[in-house]
Amino acid sequence: MGKERMLVVDDEEDILELVGYNLRKEGYEVECADTGEKALSAARSRVPDLVVLDLMLPGADGLEVCRILKNDPATSHVAIVMLTAKGEEADVVAGLELGADDYVTKPFSPRVLVARVRAVLRRRSAEVTDEKSPIKVGELHIHPGRHEVLVLGEPVDLTLTEFRILHFLARRPGWVFTRYQLVDGARGPDAIVTDRSVDVHMVSLRRKLGDLGNLIETVRGVGYRLRDE
Q1: Span 27-38, mean pLDDT?
Q2: What is residue 3's DSSP assignment?
């Protein structure tokens, strides 16, 4: 199996060098681009496994690049980690809803970015897990086939919507999801959930999970994630 291929996109040369150096040191093959247009051209000529994508780019910005990559069948599977400035929560939410996998806020530690990249690739490879397979996150056990949740070995009584939200989060621990993504993940013919009601369901879920309620983390201005134990 060849090296996993990274495409790093940023208009700041020092960041390209810093990120590129640290990813190469981890054994990844790295290509760099300093504009959105160059990034799209590079991604089409040699499809990467993951794109580290700055949102603030000249010309086609990061959100536009993300939208184009995710709408093209040839690149829709490519993982995307966004680089964002502080105060860009709205752009983070937009990027996640377009299909980006994670984000890192500038200024960032190269070690943190590399860890996020590794985690995204690991979770992507694990996504082939059958939706009916049991999930274990620490002392939280979820059995989709039996519609059962155990906390420290004890069963917990959840509503259908609560179960679907928890299962959706647990299938991708560590990933941040917006309220709209959680609505899509929990929606069903017999489950009614809106973006405004997600917060209410989260309060109830945390209460019912007791000591493990803190596994569900609020990401301010963005949404929620289940902590990766």
Answers
A1: 94
A2: P
Tens of pLDDT along 146-185? 788 999 989 999 888 888 899 989 988 888 888 888 887 7
3-state SS assignment for residue 222: coil
The domain ranges of the chain are 5-126, 135-226
Class of domain 135-226: mainly alpha
Return phi, psi of residue 31, to 5°. Answer: -125, 145
**pLDDT tens by residue, 39-94:** 999 999 989 999 999 998 888 899 999 999 999 888 988 999 999 887 778 888 99
**196 Cβ contact partners less than 8 Å away, ≥ 6 residues apart:** none
**What CATH fold (topology level) applies to the domain 5-126?**
Rossmann fold (3.40.50)
5-126 and 135-226 have identical folds: no
Could you tell me which residues come within 8 angstroms of residue 81 by beta carbon, excluding any fewer than 6 positions away? 50, 51, 52, 53, 100, 101, 102, 103, 104, 113, 116, 117, 120
> Tokens 């519609």 label which residue?
147
How far does Cα 69 stand from its chain's mean position? 16
Helix (H) or strand (E) holding 38: helix 36-45
Model confidence pLDDT, tens digit, residues 184-212: 777 654 455 566 788 888 999 999 999 89
Q: State which amino acid sits at residue 97.
A: E
- What is the rounded CA–CA span in Å between residue 201 and residue 208? 10
